[in-house]
Amino acid sequence: MSEHTTQSPRGFDAREVADELAPTWASRREQIEAVCAPLREAMLRDLDPQPGDTVLELAAGTGDTGFDAAERVAAEGRLISSDFAPTMLDEARKRGAERGIENVEFEVIDATEMELEDDSVDGVLCRFGYMLMTDVEAALSGTRRVLRPGGKVSLAVWGSPEKNPFFMIPAISLIQRGHMPPPEPPPAPGLFSMADPERIKALLRNAGFEEVRVDEVDLTFPVPNAGGYLEFITDTAGPLAIALRGLDEQQRAEVLGDVEDSLERFAADGGGYPLPGLALCAVGS
Predict the structure, then answer these.
(1) Angle between helical axes of 226-236 and 238-245 (0-180°, round to 10)
(2) CB environment 32-44: b (16+ within 10 A), e (fewer)
(3) Can you give the pTM of this predicted structure?
(4) CATH superfamily of domain region 3-160+187-221+279-284
(5) Given this model, what pLDDT does residue 60 score?
(6) Closest CA to 277 of 36, 3, 105, 111
(7) How far apart are CA 115 and CA 113, in angstroms?
(8) Are 109 and 83 in contact (CB under 8 A)?
(9) Running along the chain, 285 residues long, what does each successive block of 10 average in pLDDT?
């Protein structure tokens, strides 16, 4: 895997981060998938996999979106569950075994340098992956290349920062306190690098997709308290997690205080802090 596919302009190695977070990400899988259930449903509805199809999932993480597709393509179909982080792929293997998915192959694949044959799959899924790739244009062109005529890609990315306080609350504190740099604007990779629907459409069309649609999917993150929230972010949220893991006790207490203050405007009458979220679900064919 070449360096340019993993190294960000700020020296952030996405593969190393994914490998480091894989065990804690997997431990939070049920919480993550509960939040993302409406998004999984939307992505599968757009892809509409049929019995006998071959479906490729890129940046699969623990793999549940692809496993849903594997059940739809049935025994005569096939899922290729892939990630560029071997440790994350190991977690997907464990999850696939738990779900009893047998029509699946697991492969380490860098989406920007895919070696799959042309016209070899019927559909591609990618949930929260393309936005983090340093060469999304190459990844989407490769996606188009491996799709058979009539095949589709169904992808999801995060919407605008102001619609996603779940990530922005800790990010603002970490940036303001100097614990991490502010994000670079697109085309640099990041959580919100594909938050503009028009950019998504342009990227897909430039990659060779003729029919393109982008829909909004509302999500809700149930946050019980500030401490548990910060622990969840530390376990799962990429560069935010790495920044939090590097704090000493005093620094973490300061960030926790900022988070507590910011959560107040989301307090629910019955307790807790349900944080709104917005994902963009795009389909190209």
Answers:
(1) 110
(2) bbebbeebbebbb
(3) 0.93
(4) Vaccinia Virus protein VP39 (3.40.50.150)
(5) 97
(6) 36
(7) 6
(8) yes
(9) 34 76 93 97 98 98 97 98 95 97 97 96 98 95 98 98 97 97 91 97 98 98 97 94 96 98 96 97 98
How much is the pLDDT for 5? 34
**Model pLDDT, residue 12:** 55
- What are the residue ranges spanned by the domains of the chain? 3-160+187-221+279-284
| Contacts of 122 by beta carbon, 8 Å cutoff, 6+ apart | 49, 50, 53, 54, 55, 147, 148, 150, 151
Q: CA–CA distance from 178 to each of 72, 237, 238, 243, 247 (Å)? A: 47, 18, 17, 10, 11
At 214 the pLDDT is: 98
